[in-house]
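Example record used in the benchmark description.
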Amino acid sequence: MSRVSLSIVVPIFNEEALLHELNSRLVQELGTLGVSWEILYVNDGSRDSSLEILRRFARNDQRIRYLSFSRNFGHQLAISAGIDYSTGDAVVTIDGDLQDPPELISELWKRHKEGFHVVYARRNKRKGESWFKLFTATLFYRLLRRITAIDIPVDVGDFRLISREVADHLRAMPEHNKYLRGQIAWLGYSGDFVFYDRDARKAGSSSYPFRKMLRFALDGITAFSDAPLKFVSRLGFIVSGIAFLVILYALYSHLVLGETITGWTSIIVSTMFIGGIQLISVGIIGEYISRINDNVRQRPLYVIAEKSE
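Model output (structure tokens):
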């Protein structure tokens, strides 16, 4: 596969209603750059006609390629696969729902040519999203930034440009629970920002319901911070200290004051409180162990069932 100047990686999951407009806008924007380019679509197990549309794109234009997973492996792994198979000296990743404008690619490319290895598209506004999603996203990214030693940019998504050097380093990070925003920040390469207003989704529904958002947040925290484990340890010391003080008070009341502490309610409440702390602690430790287990199996990150020639 011949090398090009710029690769565009687009993860696709049930986007048949938007693909033609997306492809047209991408091709039109890339035509203004005056450089060689390719578009690499990654079909993440779509159940609609997205794959057939991608086949037609590839047949009509050799600069357009696609990969198709055997099933849905997830958004982050779809982006990772696109980066793995890209050939560009620089790679732009952009979602396929048209919330991120393809017309911003020229600005990302311009900043890259000024010497930046990473150029983030930072969102000023996020149209069409609920207050709950905006609030939880803002809270999560700022919390993650506080509990990690890595300067992970806030208010950015997966719309960005990375250099070939960054892409090659990402290929050498085979974690199953991918959190690309953190991995790119961890590399420490020079970065810049391009600001824009994110549009509302034009068709279909989001493939990131609350359950997936929560899993994504856990991946980010467990991949780049041991703060939850430290919290569990400190909480254990605090609860043990409180229990020790209660024991001393009970002994003092019985031996000195001649009073015996009684009460079914206090015993049950104390037992349930300590039991809840234990379950939370085991759950946090289990999240870390689960991710270790995923990686030691050494299964492939994804399975490609079909790809363009």
